[in-house]
């Protein structure tokens, strides 16, 4: 006889207790521009393993993304935080962040070059199985990983967490070679209904393998504790949606990294 | 040193190899009407465990739902297929099915009574932990489990697979006490955009804990092999969406049956 055990509890047990996470800053280039990313992997894992690119929100590459990379390393992946803005470019407030993000959102070609440089850097890591690679991103980074897909990059999948979904060139959806998961706050005021509808149409027209999850009660930035917890501001942390979207990402990875 | 193992593979290993699934038909009543449900559980599991109600699509309680109940029993749950139409009522074609389903869709009070009778029958099973109960349903059954929630029934969660989302009384959303997961085909022509929007508003207004997953490329009946594979008919099986929605359901159960 056995006792009932919820099936997914067992998954938690599969995470090693002997994880030894190595982290370091890594300089790399896009054209003449020096970028500074952040690498994390578990030194106790042998051999090649899937790689996951992490793209930062509008404040640039912060401890938040570094912590996500460490969490991914604990799951057994090689994680690399891309730097889109350039070494030392860290907006000091939301005004600067808006200006910096807009540079790239209004020049998608440049944004694609920057994020592809990060992907190349990740793939060049000796521990990465280059046939099993994904990218995730938060807010601005969510938009960025969708642009990575639209650039025709070779990877298995992308996950956008509360990213903007608009595209100035929706026909580029046809370039997408990877699976797409969008984790979206159902009450996110920064992603208008028309953008959602246009995104869905882009995916549909291009016959992309896509899934979109709407988390009830969640607004923009729902994965980010630093956003506070006041939904009326339009951006706020939502623990429930944070945990569920992370679990959805793990399930997505289990599917694409078979 | 350890090799990389995708985290969720471990979950599969948690399913017992010694499962001994017991199944049987069960007569029960709603008022004076005799209903005939179907019970499935694993005889190798000791003690009480969560219970899951399964509600059939418009053709009535068929082998399809019985197989789902067996799959749920293999996961360790007590599964019970409700009978909404009544003992021996099995539409012989889609015309009869449409007429039968319409009886209940146009009399939501009766539909709620019928599905609550099934829930009561499940809860009366000696192996069911009545504090851990969910309901799932397909097409007409998806609509039905949402009505079950709207009736104010005491259970932990419901999952609708390609169910209709409309409500003649959207204010009843305020009665919902359980968590709600909707698995929806992004190309389902039988659930108009206005119904989706109204459903989301109903959940929002009532402050329900809800999640909606849109599966790209999927139409109505995407979990049902008997629907064929021609999307142009508006109802078709989609293996990808079937497997992913089942996995999403398991993740949802892991959350509500803690």
Describe the structure.
- 2 copies of one chain form a homodimer.
- Chain A is α/β, with parallel strands linked by helices and 258 residues long.
- The first copy, chain A, has 7 helices and 10 strands.
- The first copy, chain A, has helices at residues 9-13, 63-74, 94-105, 108-123, 140-150, 193-205, 239-256; strands at 2-3, 21-30, 33-42, 45-46, 49-55, 78-81, 128-138, 157-161, 179-185, 210-215.
- In chain A, strands 2-3-6-5-7-8-9-10 form an 8-stranded mixed beta sheet, with helices on both faces.
- In chain A, strand 9 (179-185), helix 6 (193-205) and strand 10 (210-215) form a beta-alpha-beta unit.
- In chain A, helix 4 packs across helix 5 (140-150).
- The two termini of chain A are 32 Å apart.
- At the A-B interface, strand 1, helix 1, strand 4, helix 6 and strand 10 of A face strand 1, helix 1, strand 4, helix 6 and strand 10 of B.
- Strand 4 of chain A pairs parallel with strand 1 of chain B, so a sheet runs across the interface.
């Amino acid at each position: 006889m056995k006792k009932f055990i919820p099936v997914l509890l067992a998954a938690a047990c599969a995470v090693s207790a002997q994880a030894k996470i190595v982290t370091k800053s890594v300089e790399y280039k896009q054209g003449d521009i020096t970028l500074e990313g952040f690498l994390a992997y578990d030194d106790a894992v042998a051999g090649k393993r899937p790689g996951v690119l992490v793209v930062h929100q509008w404040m640039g590459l912060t401890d938040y993304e570094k912590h996500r990379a460490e969490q991914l390393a604990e799951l057994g992946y090689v994680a690399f935080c891309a730097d889109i803005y350039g070494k030392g470019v860290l907006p000091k407030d939301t005004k600067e962040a808006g200006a910096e993000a807009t540079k790239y959102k209004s020049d998608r070609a440049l944004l694609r070059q920057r994020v592809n440089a990060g992907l190349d850097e990740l793939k060049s890591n000796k521990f990465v199985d280059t046939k099993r690679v994904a990218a995730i991103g938060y807010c601005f980074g969510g938009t960025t990983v969708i642009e990575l897909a639209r650039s025709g990059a070779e990877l298995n999948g992308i996950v956008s967490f509360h990213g903007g979904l608009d595209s100035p060139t929706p026909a580029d959806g046809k370039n997408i070679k990877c699976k797409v998961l969008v984790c979206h706050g159902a009450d996110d005021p920064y992603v208008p209904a028309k953008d959602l509808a246009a995104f869905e149409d882009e995916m549909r027209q291009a016959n992309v393998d896509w899934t979109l999850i709407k988390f009830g009660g969640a607004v923009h930035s729902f994965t980010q504790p630093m956003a506070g917890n006041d939904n009326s501001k339009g951006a706020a942390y939502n623990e429930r949606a944070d945990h569920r979207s992370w679990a959805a990402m793990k399930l997505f990875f289990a599917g694409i990294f078979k």
